[in-house]
From TrEMBL:
Entry EC no(s): 2.7.1.39
Keyword entries, A-Z: Amino-acid biosynthesis, ATP-binding, Cytoplasm, Kinase, Nucleotide-binding, Threonine biosynthesis, Transferase
Name this polypeptide is given: Homoserine kinase
Subcellular location: Cytoplasm
Keyword Lipid biosynthesis: no
Gene Ontology BP, a term: threonine biosynthetic process
Similarity comment text for this entry: Belongs to the GHMP kinase family. Homoserine kinase subfamily.
Pathway annotation from the record: Amino-acid biosynthesis; L-threonine biosynthesis; L-threonine from L-aspartate: step 4/5
Segments of skewed composition (Low complexity): 148-176
Gene Ontology CC: cytoplasm
Gene name, Swiss-Prot/TrEMBL: thrB
Membrane-spanning parts: none
Length: 371
């Protein structure tokens, strides 16, 4: 178990709590680009200690409890990037995101480690927390439309992470959302994860479009429309991302690529809260927008129950896709009635989780001992 937090003489946080949402990637046609943050959370308490490493894990999945743990690896990588000496660490990880199901568990762990290390490196959780390495300051690599980067970089919100409460003997400050301008965090997370879609949504919340240029990973974030009601169907079986990617062809035909590109553009526009539409119209458009010919036709044959569920949901008019590389299924229901119809289509092989859209992304709370 993690001990009581300490504050150093410089006032820097010595113990923080980070909460990171589950994510679904691709959403059909947005292969390796689209991400959606979901209202299901992993939570990690991280304390800097004099030496050593302890990892306490709460959750059903077996994970490493040594230096190979993804949260630990991300913390170490962040301190290296910041040019700081490596501290001892005590971690308590509450894992709620299923592993190996296409819901971004590895992205959540990576983001948790990066955000925790950045917060521990800063004297407070205000604007200095968001600054990052000097080489990347002022670079709005994670952009929110209509929000200037300087405003987004200093915005904070007392969010649900604060409601989770501190441990015994601790007092918690307000939860601070990771800022839109934290481009360096996205780039580091992408370097560790290998693809930017899940980590972008985990950092920023909402619906994200990620891409790479010569400077690294970048992301654009929008708030999805209010009537969106995601429903996740989680099977008991696991599937590795690497194995799922192995089923993909090296080349696809031009007609398939062109059709999928059009659907991806349509999906990005349909997801935006700024684009007004009646619920029925949006549901029909979203159904068409989630069609994909790049990856799902090649992945679904390896998971027959998943393929059958996707087909059953779509026969009801529900926009349904693989969640990431699978084997979970994501239904992007519009309104409560369609969400209920989606839940009713589940088979015994799947557990069903109606979820909200997470609109805050990763959040960090400082935990200090009571004075």
């Amino acid at each position: 178990m993690v001990g009581a937090g300490r504050a150093g003489a410089d006032g820097a946080a010595r113990r923080v709590r980070v909460r990171v949402p589950a994510t679904s990637a691709n959403l059909g046609p947005g292969f390796d680009a689209f991400g959606l943050a979901l209202g299901l959370y992993d939570e990690v308490d991280v304390e800097m200690t004099a030496s050593g490493l302890t990892v306490d894990v709460v959750g059903p999945d077996e994970v490493a409890q040594d230096e190979t743990h993804l949260v630990v690896r991300a913390i170490r990588a962040t301190f290296d990037l910041l040019g700081r000496p490596q501290p001892g660490l005590a971690l308590r990880c509450v894992n709620r995101i299923p592993h190996g199901r296409g819901l971004g568990s590895s992205a959540a762990a990576i983001v948790a480690g990066i955000v925790a290390a950045a917060a521990l490196d800063r004297p407070d959780l205000g604007p200095e927390f968001e600054a990052g390495p000097a080489a990347n300051q002022g670079d709005p690599g994670v952009a929110r439309p209509g929000v200037p980067a300087d405003r987004a970089a200093t915005a904070t919100a007392a969010g649900p992470a604060a409601a989770a409460g501190p441990g015994p003997g601790d007092s918690a400050g307000p939860a601070t959302s990771v800022p839109a301008a934290a481009a360096w965090m996205l780039r580091l997370a992408h370097d560790i994860e290998g693809h930017p879609d899940n980590v972008a949504a985990a950092l920023s919340g909402g619906f994200t479009v990620a891409w790479q240029d010569v400077e690294g990973a970048r992301c654009l974030r929008v708030d999805p429309f209010a009537e969106l009601r995601p429903v996740v169907f989680v099977p008991t079986v696991r599937q590795s991302t690497e194995a799922s990617r192995g089923a993909l062809p090296v080349l696809v035909g031009l007609p398939d690529a062109a059709r999928t590109l059009g659907r991806a553009a349509l999906l990005a526009l349909t997801m935006s809260a700024a684009e007004p539409a009646a619920a029925a119209q949006r549901a029909r458009t979203l159904f068409s927008a989630t069609e994909d010919l790049l990856h799902q036709p090649y992945r679904l044959p390896a998971a027959p129950a998943t393929g059958e569920l996707v087909a059953r949901l779509r026969a009801l008019g529900v926009p349904a896709t693989l969640s990431g590389s699978g084997p979970s299924v994501l239904a992007l229901a519009v309104g409560g009635e369609q969400a209920a119809a989606a839940v009713g289509a589940a088979s015994a092989e799947f557990s069903v989780a109606p979820l909200s859209v997470d609109r805050s992304g990763a959040q960090v709370t400082r935990l200090d001992p009571e004075r």
